[in-house]
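Hey, I was hoping to borrow your eyes for a little while. I'm sending you its amino acid sequence along with the backbone structure tokens. Take your time with it, there's no hurry, and the full record follows here.
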Amino acid sequence: MTTGVPGLTELWSRFENWLAKHAPGDYESLRQGCPGADIKRLEDSLGFSLHEDVRTTLELHNGVTIRRASTEPGAFLLGYSLLDIDGILEAHRDLVSMVEDAREEGEVDLVVGCIADMQWVPLARNISGDLLFVDHRHHHLGEIGEISFGDSEYRMLWPRMDLMLVDLCHSVESGAPVTSVPRVPVLYEGRMLEWHIRPPQQVS
């Protein structure tokens, strides 16, 4: 079915080209893509097949160089850094542990599908430990969600990764806020991208 939206590889290339020109520190933080054997190792550990968007992203880039401080580049996805395969597995194990603890404590309704789920595949993490993930549940397949630990429920930010990248590309190219959250792109020291919360519009 034709949607009018460019393919994911083309969209990643468009976003990366903008980073290379305007935020070189972020661009240089991108790591080389994963071989198929590593992606299979990830799927075997998860226990299910990866959504094609996650697979494509890992084939392009196995995450970014790990940040040690907020002044280091690499958090160009709304302040989140792309995870490599080992980072995905670590973050997923944390989600699995939360689900298992909830089952033992009789708190499934408060946790599963709200703040953790075994079928959420972490995509990126910020320096506080919050996550962006790709939903692998049947009725939510491919959605991009945000877990902010401390909130009682996750937020669905985009229905698909290609739409996430369309939104991010438009935002960095025009300076407009992304559509899913009130965040605007700001360049820091001409080397990395930050996302600042836009204050609410004043009503005159």
